[in-house]
Design brief:
Layout (H helix, E strand, L loop, with lengths): L5 E3 L7 H7 L8 H4 L3 E3 H18 L9 H7 L3 H22 L4 H4 L2 H24 L10 H11 L19 H6 L4 H19 L4 H19 L5 H16 L18 H10 L11 H19 L9 H22 L5 H14 L1
Parallel strand pairs: 1-2
Helix pairs in contact: 3-5, 5-7, 5-8, 10-11, 10-12, 11-12, 13-14, 13-16, 14-15
Length: about 350
Protein backbone atom coordinates (compact mmCIF):
# COMPACT_ATOMS: atom_id res chain seq x y z
CA UNK A 1 0.00 0.00 0.00
CA UNK A 2 1.15 3.52 -0.72
CA UNK A 3 -0.36 4.79 2.50
CA UNK A 4 -2.47 3.71 5.46
CA UNK A 5 -1.86 2.07 8.83
CA UNK A 6 -1.92 -1.42 10.34
CA UNK A 7 -3.55 -2.30 13.66
CA UNK A 8 -2.20 -5.33 15.48
CA UNK A 9 -5.39 -6.62 17.11
CA UNK A 10 -3.78 -9.72 18.65
CA UNK A 11 -0.25 -8.55 19.43
CA UNK A 12 1.37 -10.98 17.00
CA UNK A 13 3.52 -8.65 14.95
CA UNK A 14 6.24 -8.10 17.52
CA UNK A 15 9.07 -5.98 16.22
CA UNK A 16 7.62 -5.40 12.77
CA UNK A 17 8.45 -1.71 13.04
CA UNK A 18 12.14 -2.61 13.03
CA UNK A 19 11.68 -5.10 10.22
CA UNK A 20 9.95 -2.51 8.08
CA UNK A 21 12.90 -0.16 8.32
CA UNK A 22 15.12 -2.86 6.80
CA UNK A 23 12.64 -3.82 4.05
CA UNK A 24 14.11 -3.02 0.62
CA UNK A 25 10.74 -1.96 -0.76
CA UNK A 26 10.71 0.88 1.76
CA UNK A 27 14.26 2.00 1.13
CA UNK A 28 13.08 5.36 -0.20
CA UNK A 29 11.36 6.20 3.09
CA UNK A 30 12.98 7.73 6.13
CA UNK A 31 12.83 5.52 9.20
CA UNK A 32 10.93 8.20 11.08
CA UNK A 33 8.14 8.00 8.46
CA UNK A 34 7.43 4.32 9.02
CA UNK A 35 8.46 3.75 12.61
CA UNK A 36 4.80 3.95 13.71
CA UNK A 37 3.32 2.00 10.82
CA UNK A 38 2.18 -0.69 13.24
CA UNK A 39 -0.16 0.28 16.07
CA UNK A 40 -0.33 -1.63 19.35
CA UNK A 41 -4.00 -2.39 20.00
CA UNK A 42 -3.50 -2.04 23.76
CA UNK A 43 -2.24 1.47 23.26
CA UNK A 44 -5.29 2.23 21.11
CA UNK A 45 -7.62 0.87 23.79
CA UNK A 46 -5.92 3.03 26.38
CA UNK A 47 -6.70 6.09 24.24
CA UNK A 48 -10.40 5.58 24.98
CA UNK A 49 -9.77 6.80 28.51
CA UNK A 50 -7.97 9.90 27.21
CA UNK A 51 -10.75 10.91 24.82
CA UNK A 52 -13.38 10.07 27.45
CA UNK A 53 -11.59 12.38 29.88
CA UNK A 54 -11.45 15.16 27.28
CA UNK A 55 -15.22 15.01 26.90
CA UNK A 56 -15.79 14.86 30.65
CA UNK A 57 -13.55 17.88 31.24
CA UNK A 58 -15.32 19.83 28.49
CA UNK A 59 -18.57 19.48 30.46
CA UNK A 60 -17.26 20.03 33.99
CA UNK A 61 -19.06 23.39 34.09
CA UNK A 62 -22.46 21.80 33.40
CA UNK A 63 -24.52 22.21 36.57
CA UNK A 64 -26.71 19.12 36.28
CA UNK A 65 -24.62 16.26 34.95
CA UNK A 66 -27.55 13.86 34.53
CA UNK A 67 -29.72 16.33 32.63
CA UNK A 68 -29.34 16.46 28.85
CA UNK A 69 -31.05 19.85 28.73
CA UNK A 70 -28.20 21.31 30.78
CA UNK A 71 -25.67 19.97 28.30
CA UNK A 72 -27.63 21.40 25.37
CA UNK A 73 -27.81 24.84 26.97
CA UNK A 74 -24.08 24.67 27.70
CA UNK A 75 -23.41 23.92 24.02
CA UNK A 76 -25.16 27.09 22.88
CA UNK A 77 -21.64 28.45 22.44
CA UNK A 78 -20.46 27.58 18.92
CA UNK A 79 -16.82 27.12 19.94
CA UNK A 80 -17.83 24.63 22.62
CA UNK A 81 -19.93 22.71 20.08
CA UNK A 82 -17.00 22.48 17.69
CA UNK A 83 -14.78 21.20 20.51
CA UNK A 84 -17.46 18.68 21.46
CA UNK A 85 -17.75 17.36 17.90
CA UNK A 86 -13.97 17.03 17.65
CA UNK A 87 -13.63 15.18 20.96
CA UNK A 88 -16.59 12.95 20.12
CA UNK A 89 -15.03 12.03 16.78
CA UNK A 90 -11.84 10.93 18.51
CA UNK A 91 -13.73 9.10 21.25
CA UNK A 92 -15.96 7.22 18.80
CA UNK A 93 -13.01 6.10 16.69
CA UNK A 94 -11.00 4.88 19.68
CA UNK A 95 -13.99 3.10 21.21
CA UNK A 96 -14.82 1.36 17.94
CA UNK A 97 -11.27 0.01 17.68
CA UNK A 98 -11.28 -1.03 21.34
CA UNK A 99 -14.59 -2.90 21.14
CA UNK A 100 -13.37 -4.74 18.05
CA UNK A 101 -10.47 -6.37 19.91
CA UNK A 102 -10.36 -9.37 22.23
CA UNK A 103 -7.65 -7.53 24.19
CA UNK A 104 -10.25 -5.07 25.48
CA UNK A 105 -10.69 -6.60 28.93
CA UNK A 106 -6.94 -6.81 29.46
CA UNK A 107 -6.89 -3.03 29.53
CA UNK A 108 -10.36 -2.02 30.74
CA UNK A 109 -12.64 -3.39 33.45
CA UNK A 110 -16.23 -4.51 32.83
CA UNK A 111 -17.49 -1.43 34.66
CA UNK A 112 -15.37 0.88 32.51
CA UNK A 113 -16.59 -0.71 29.29
CA UNK A 114 -20.22 -0.33 30.38
CA UNK A 115 -19.62 3.29 31.32
CA UNK A 116 -17.89 4.05 28.01
CA UNK A 117 -20.78 2.51 26.05
CA UNK A 118 -23.39 4.43 28.04
CA UNK A 119 -21.54 7.70 27.53
CA UNK A 120 -21.20 7.02 23.81
CA UNK A 121 -24.94 6.55 23.58
CA UNK A 122 -25.54 9.73 25.59
CA UNK A 123 -23.12 11.81 23.52
CA UNK A 124 -24.54 10.50 20.24
CA UNK A 125 -28.02 11.55 21.31
CA UNK A 126 -26.69 14.90 22.53
CA UNK A 127 -24.99 15.53 19.20
CA UNK A 128 -28.20 14.92 17.26
CA UNK A 129 -30.19 17.12 19.62
CA UNK A 130 -27.88 20.13 19.47
CA UNK A 131 -27.61 19.91 15.68
CA UNK A 132 -31.35 20.47 15.47
CA UNK A 133 -31.58 22.85 18.41
CA UNK A 134 -28.98 25.20 16.93
CA UNK A 135 -29.94 24.56 13.32
CA UNK A 136 -26.56 23.57 12.02
CA UNK A 137 -25.26 21.09 9.50
CA UNK A 138 -21.98 19.69 10.73
CA UNK A 139 -19.60 17.91 8.40
CA UNK A 140 -19.30 14.47 9.94
CA UNK A 141 -18.08 12.87 6.70
CA UNK A 142 -14.84 11.71 8.28
CA UNK A 143 -16.44 9.62 11.00
CA UNK A 144 -20.22 9.46 10.55
CA UNK A 145 -20.22 5.93 9.14
CA UNK A 146 -17.81 4.68 11.78
CA UNK A 147 -19.94 6.17 14.54
CA UNK A 148 -23.12 4.66 13.16
CA UNK A 149 -21.46 1.24 12.82
CA UNK A 150 -20.19 1.55 16.37
CA UNK A 151 -23.71 2.25 17.63
CA UNK A 152 -25.29 -0.51 15.54
CA UNK A 153 -22.70 -3.18 16.33
CA UNK A 154 -21.63 -2.65 19.92
CA UNK A 155 -24.09 -0.33 21.63
CA UNK A 156 -27.82 -0.74 22.10
CA UNK A 157 -29.48 2.45 20.97
CA UNK A 158 -33.10 1.54 21.68
CA UNK A 159 -33.51 4.42 24.09
CA UNK A 160 -31.98 7.04 21.82
CA UNK A 161 -34.41 9.59 20.50
CA UNK A 162 -33.67 9.37 16.79
CA UNK A 163 -33.94 12.82 15.27
CA UNK A 164 -34.22 13.29 11.53
CA UNK A 165 -32.25 15.68 9.36
CA UNK A 166 -32.41 19.41 9.92
CA UNK A 167 -35.37 20.96 8.15
CA UNK A 168 -35.90 24.51 6.98
CA UNK A 169 -38.20 26.71 9.02
CA UNK A 170 -40.49 26.94 5.98
CA UNK A 171 -40.79 23.16 5.60
CA UNK A 172 -43.98 21.42 6.70
CA UNK A 173 -42.05 19.11 9.01
CA UNK A 174 -40.26 21.84 10.96
CA UNK A 175 -42.83 22.19 13.74
CA UNK A 176 -43.00 18.40 14.11
CA UNK A 177 -39.25 18.27 14.63
CA UNK A 178 -39.39 21.10 17.16
CA UNK A 179 -42.21 19.37 19.04
CA UNK A 180 -39.96 16.34 19.57
CA UNK A 181 -37.45 18.39 21.54
CA UNK A 182 -37.67 18.17 25.29
CA UNK A 183 -38.12 21.50 27.04
CA UNK A 184 -39.75 24.76 26.01
CA UNK A 185 -36.30 26.32 26.13
CA UNK A 186 -34.97 23.75 23.64
CA UNK A 187 -37.92 24.38 21.33
CA UNK A 188 -37.41 28.12 21.54
CA UNK A 189 -33.70 27.77 20.76
CA UNK A 190 -34.48 25.58 17.75
CA UNK A 191 -36.93 28.14 16.37
CA UNK A 192 -34.63 31.10 17.05
CA UNK A 193 -31.61 29.35 15.52
CA UNK A 194 -33.58 28.39 12.41
CA UNK A 195 -34.96 31.93 12.20
CA UNK A 196 -31.47 33.40 12.46
CA UNK A 197 -30.32 31.18 9.59
CA UNK A 198 -33.14 32.54 7.42
CA UNK A 199 -32.40 36.12 8.44
CA UNK A 200 -28.71 35.79 7.54
CA UNK A 201 -29.67 34.33 4.17
CA UNK A 202 -32.24 36.99 3.36
CA UNK A 203 -30.68 40.04 5.02
CA UNK A 204 -29.54 41.64 1.76
CA UNK A 205 -33.01 41.35 0.23
CA UNK A 206 -34.45 43.69 2.87
CA UNK A 207 -31.89 44.88 5.43
CA UNK A 208 -34.29 47.04 7.45
CA UNK A 209 -36.91 44.31 7.82
CA UNK A 210 -34.53 41.51 8.76
CA UNK A 211 -32.35 43.70 10.95
CA UNK A 212 -35.41 44.43 13.09
CA UNK A 213 -36.14 40.71 13.38
CA UNK A 214 -32.51 40.02 14.25
CA UNK A 215 -32.64 42.58 17.06
CA UNK A 216 -35.89 41.05 18.32
CA UNK A 217 -34.17 37.67 18.54
CA UNK A 218 -31.19 39.16 20.40
CA UNK A 219 -33.57 40.80 22.85
CA UNK A 220 -35.48 37.56 23.46
CA UNK A 221 -32.27 35.68 24.19
CA UNK A 222 -30.98 38.43 26.48
CA UNK A 223 -34.30 38.75 28.33
CA UNK A 224 -34.28 35.02 29.00
CA UNK A 225 -30.68 35.17 30.29
CA UNK A 226 -31.70 38.08 32.54
CA UNK A 227 -34.70 36.02 33.75
CA UNK A 228 -37.11 38.60 32.40
CA UNK A 229 -38.74 35.83 30.34
CA UNK A 230 -39.68 32.35 31.48
CA UNK A 231 -39.17 29.32 29.23
CA UNK A 232 -42.83 29.45 28.22
CA UNK A 233 -42.58 33.16 27.37
CA UNK A 234 -39.33 32.64 25.47
CA UNK A 235 -41.03 29.96 23.36
CA UNK A 236 -44.04 32.20 22.73
CA UNK A 237 -41.78 35.03 21.59
CA UNK A 238 -39.81 32.66 19.35
CA UNK A 239 -43.05 31.47 17.76
CA UNK A 240 -43.97 35.09 17.03
CA UNK A 241 -40.65 35.52 15.20
CA UNK A 242 -41.43 32.37 13.24
CA UNK A 243 -44.83 33.76 12.27
CA UNK A 244 -43.21 36.98 11.05
CA UNK A 245 -40.85 35.01 8.85
CA UNK A 246 -43.60 32.77 7.52
CA UNK A 247 -45.50 35.91 6.63
CA UNK A 248 -42.45 37.74 5.32
CA UNK A 249 -44.57 39.79 2.94
CA UNK A 250 -46.67 41.12 5.80
CA UNK A 251 -45.73 44.11 7.86
CA UNK A 252 -43.82 44.16 11.11
CA UNK A 253 -46.02 45.59 13.85
CA UNK A 254 -43.82 48.68 14.21
CA UNK A 255 -44.08 49.58 10.52
CA UNK A 256 -47.17 51.05 8.90
CA UNK A 257 -47.12 51.06 5.13
CA UNK A 258 -48.96 53.63 2.99
CA UNK A 259 -51.88 52.07 1.15
CA UNK A 260 -50.29 52.40 -2.30
CA UNK A 261 -47.53 49.89 -1.46
CA UNK A 262 -49.47 47.46 0.72
CA UNK A 263 -49.61 44.86 -2.06
CA UNK A 264 -46.02 45.15 -3.24
CA UNK A 265 -43.33 43.27 -1.34
CA UNK A 266 -40.52 44.87 -3.35
CA UNK A 267 -41.85 48.43 -2.95
CA UNK A 268 -42.25 47.85 0.79
CA UNK A 269 -38.64 46.68 1.01
CA UNK A 270 -37.43 49.82 -0.77
CA UNK A 271 -39.71 51.97 1.40
CA UNK A 272 -38.36 50.47 4.65
CA UNK A 273 -34.72 50.77 3.67
CA UNK A 274 -34.87 54.14 1.90
CA UNK A 275 -36.79 55.73 4.76
CA UNK A 276 -33.69 56.93 6.59
CA UNK A 277 -32.65 58.91 3.51
CA UNK A 278 -35.97 60.78 3.40
CA UNK A 279 -35.88 62.11 6.97
CA UNK A 280 -34.60 65.50 5.78
CA UNK A 281 -37.53 66.01 3.45
CA UNK A 282 -39.43 68.76 5.28
CA UNK A 283 -42.93 67.73 4.34
CA UNK A 284 -45.69 66.24 6.45
CA UNK A 285 -46.30 63.74 3.66
CA UNK A 286 -42.75 62.41 3.64
CA UNK A 287 -44.00 58.82 3.99
CA UNK A 288 -46.16 59.23 0.91
CA UNK A 289 -43.23 60.71 -1.02
CA UNK A 290 -41.07 57.74 -0.03
CA UNK A 291 -43.88 55.34 -1.00
CA UNK A 292 -44.31 56.98 -4.43
CA UNK A 293 -40.55 56.81 -4.97
CA UNK A 294 -40.58 53.11 -4.02
CA UNK A 295 -43.38 52.34 -6.48
CA UNK A 296 -41.59 54.18 -9.28
CA UNK A 297 -38.39 52.27 -8.51
CA UNK A 298 -40.37 49.04 -8.76
CA UNK A 299 -41.71 50.14 -12.15
CA UNK A 300 -38.18 50.85 -13.37
CA UNK A 301 -37.00 47.40 -12.25
CA UNK A 302 -39.95 45.68 -13.93
CA UNK A 303 -38.96 47.33 -17.18
CA UNK A 304 -35.59 45.59 -17.15
CA UNK A 305 -35.64 42.55 -14.90
CA UNK A 306 -37.45 40.33 -17.38
CA UNK A 307 -34.27 40.11 -19.40
CA UNK A 308 -32.29 36.98 -18.48
CA UNK A 309 -28.96 38.80 -18.18
CA UNK A 310 -30.16 41.89 -16.34
CA UNK A 311 -28.25 41.17 -13.12
CA UNK A 312 -24.90 40.90 -14.88
CA UNK A 313 -25.37 43.48 -17.65
CA UNK A 314 -23.43 46.70 -17.02
CA UNK A 315 -25.55 48.47 -19.64
CA UNK A 316 -28.82 47.54 -17.91
CA UNK A 317 -27.38 48.42 -14.51
CA UNK A 318 -26.44 51.89 -15.80
CA UNK A 319 -29.91 52.41 -17.29
CA UNK A 320 -31.58 51.41 -14.01
CA UNK A 321 -29.28 53.66 -11.99
CA UNK A 322 -29.83 56.55 -14.38
CA UNK A 323 -33.62 56.27 -14.13
CA UNK A 324 -33.51 56.09 -10.32
CA UNK A 325 -31.13 59.07 -10.19
CA UNK A 326 -33.66 61.09 -12.19
CA UNK A 327 -36.26 60.34 -9.51
CA UNK A 328 -33.89 61.38 -6.74
CA UNK A 329 -32.89 64.60 -8.51
CA UNK A 330 -36.54 65.64 -8.84
CA UNK A 331 -37.10 65.12 -5.12
CA UNK A 332 -33.89 67.00 -4.30
CA UNK A 333 -34.95 69.96 -6.45
CA UNK A 334 -38.46 70.07 -5.07
CA UNK A 335 -37.56 69.85 -1.39
CA UNK A 336 -34.04 71.31 -1.34
CA UNK A 337 -32.43 68.18 0.07
CA UNK A 338 -29.38 66.12 -0.85
CA UNK A 339 -29.29 62.35 -1.01
CA UNK A 340 -26.34 59.99 -0.81
CA UNK A 341 -27.17 58.63 -4.24
CA UNK A 342 -24.42 56.01 -4.32
CA UNK A 343 -25.66 54.44 -1.07
CA UNK A 344 -29.29 54.47 -2.21
CA UNK A 345 -28.44 52.97 -5.62
CA UNK A 346 -26.34 50.22 -4.03
CA UNK A 347 -29.08 49.53 -1.51
CA UNK A 348 -31.78 49.24 -4.18
CA UNK A 349 -29.60 47.01 -6.33
CA UNK A 350 -28.93 44.70 -3.38
CA UNK A 351 -32.66 44.44 -2.68
CA UNK A 352 -33.53 43.88 -6.34
CA UNK A 353 -31.05 41.08 -7.04
CA UNK A 354 -31.86 39.27 -3.78
CA UNK A 355 -35.65 39.41 -3.96
Amino acid sequence: KDFGFIIDYRGLLGDLDQALTAYSGLSDFNEVDIIAAVIDIKEEIAKVKTHYTNLAELFTAVNYQQDQESYEVYLADEDKRKQFYDYLSQYARALKIALSSDKLYEVLSDAEVRDFKQKMQFYAELRKAVKIRYHEVVDFAQFEQQMQKLMDTFISADEVNQLTKIVNIFDDGFNDEVARLGSDNAKADAILSASTAVIVEKMRSNPAYYEKLSKKIEQIIQDYKDQVLSEVEKLANAQEIQKMLLKSNDKIDSIKYPDIIQDSGFARAVYENAGEYFVNVSNDKVDDINAEFSLKVEAILKKYNQRPDWKNSIDIKNKINGAIQDLLWKIEDEFSVTFNEVEILNLIRSISINQ
